[in-house]
Amino acid sequence: MPEDWTEEQRAKQALATANAAIKKHISALHRYNEIKDIGLGLMGLVAERRGVRQKVVMEEFGIGDKD
């Protein structure tokens, strides 16, 4: 930030930077959740085809309940 900026200008810039970081983080979480949903759906299909519970398939892939 330029040295001649007022405290208000610095605060506005800091807020804009923080808001941009938050937006980026929310976007990344959204992408993660979409990918996770697809993965769980695929594991559900595998489980159905094998005739086992989805939890069994998740354990085979090393995925726990909290992942």
User: What oligomeric state best describes the polypeptide chains here?
Assistant: single chain
Measured as a percent range, the helix fraction is over 70%
Please provide the ordered H/E string of secondary-structure elements.
HH
How many helices? The count is 2
Count the beta strands. Answer: 0
Q: What does the radius of gyration come to?
A: 22 Å
Q: What's the average pLDDT? A: 95
The shape, in one word, is rod-shaped
Secondary-structure-derived class: mainly alpha
Q: Please report the distance between the alpha carbons of the first and last residues.
A: 41 Å
Largest sheet composition: none
User: How much strand content do the residues show?
Assistant: under 5%
Low-confidence stretches: none
Task: Describe what this molecule looks like in 3D.
Helix 1 (7-50) crosses helix 2 (54-60). The chain contains 2 helices and no strands. The protein starts with 6 loop residues before the first helix and ends in a 7-residue tail after the last helix. Helices cover 76% and strands 0% of the residues. The chain is mostly helical and 67 residues long. The mean pLDDT is 95. It has a domain at 38-67.
Q: Summarize this, please?
A:
This protein has 67 residues and is mainly alpha-helical. It has helices at 7-50, 54-60.
Topology at a glance:
Layout: H1 7-50, H2 54-60
Which key features would you list for this structure?
single chain, 67 residues, mainly alpha, 76% helix, rod-shaped, DNA-repair_Swi5, DNA repair, DNA damage, Swi5-domain-containing protein
